[in-house]
Amino acid sequence: MEVLYERCCGLDVHKKSVTACFLGPEGKETRSFRTMTRDLLELAGWLVERGCTHVAMESSGVYWKPIFNLLEGLEMTVWVVNARDVQNVPGRKTDMKDAEWLATLLRHGLLRPSYIPDRPQRELRELVRYRRSLIEERAREVSRLQKVLEGANIKLGDVVSDVMGKSARAMLEELAAGETDPARLAERAQGRLQAKREDLVEALRGLMGPHQRELLAMQLEHIGFLEAQIEKLDRAIAERMRPFEAALEAVDEIPGVGRRTAEEVLVETGTDMGVFPTAAHLASWAGLCPGNHESAGKRMSGRTRKGNPYLRRALVEAARAASHTKGTYLAAQYHRLAARRGAKRAAVAVAHTILVIIYHLLKHGTRYRDLGADYFERLNEQTIVRRSVQRLEALGYRVTVEKAA
Predict the structure, then answer these.
(1) Cβ-count burial of 151 within 10 angstroms (0-12 exposed, 13-18 middle, 19+ buried)?
(2) Cβ-Cβ contacts under 8 Å for 343 (sequence gap 6 or more)
(3) What letter would DSSP give residue 192?
(4) What are the φ and ψ backbone dihedral angles of 79, each rounded to 5 degrees?
(5) DSSP-based three-state secondary structure for 361
(6) Residue 221 CB: number of other CB atoms within 10 A?
(7) What digits encode the pLDDT tens for the residues 180-227?
(8) What pTM was computed for the model?
(9) DSSP secondary structure of 287-332
């Protein structure tokens, strides 16, 4: 096979060690290094001394990140590749053989690099992903709080829509502090909730023990701590996202996509769509396109492939939010597909559509223009008219169709 890169190296990365195999005109050389910073700097110096131009390693957990951070600033191309694409011969697996196999595939141009954004975007990704983790943890803690309330026969969730709302939270804080009179607790209701005072009195009449009050107080404190951390991350992310304000505003115009969702999408994809040749490439990378599994001319499955889980999750949430909007193209698409294929498949299909829209908005610098809820009716107007006439004629009616002026 043709040699594309004369001086290249394959790295088999583990938690405590890195095995490097260098291939060059002089031959093969293999060494092992530890993963401490001093040892990784020694690895970098060893590669520079040999004039290495290309390095490849598998995307094994998070262990590739410190090596990538050290090598990306040097005059060499660093590739992180999918482990699925570099499977070796079964039964002949050692760290040295894995590193040599990586170097051999790289040398002959048989590897495909994964999309790794620049360092500022990677740092922003970590902040946004951690915020998502805290938001999910807050939701879990609220569920635990509701279990404690149910155990004490406090039915506050049956009356208020959000047990963490301002009024409900004030009631829970007094309840945790030792207040037992339902009427006094119900006095904390504000706004439209005041009209439900009688229902609140009945809902707050329970049997809460000392241990449940202690649990409730700890859970409220934990939720408050998580909210403070989320607000802190919001400020840090907003500061770093200032250069991309125009892109955020463009993506935020899509139905179902809010500010946080737009931030989650942009930190995963970036704003430069030049790294993805087409919208189909981006959808495939995100795991939002049908999979290919065909044998003997028979299509086995169209299950979506694995992609970027953070991007996929954000877009599916946006798709479900878009399905509740009124008079939009995305809502019409969702309900049209959900009737035939089910809600989950419809959500994935709408998420794919949203991603394609984002691709074109960012690539061409345009603004979102909704096609309207009647888009599919206008697209198949003649078919709809013909089928409607046929159904009426089958019932015994004589139909004359004339288009209104």
Answers:
(1) middle
(2) none
(3) G
(4) -110, 135
(5) helix
(6) 12
(7) 888 998 988 898 888 998 999 999 998 889 999 999 999 999 999 999
(8) 0.87
(9) T-S---EEETTEEEE-PPPP--HHHHHHHHHHHHHHTTSSS-HHHH
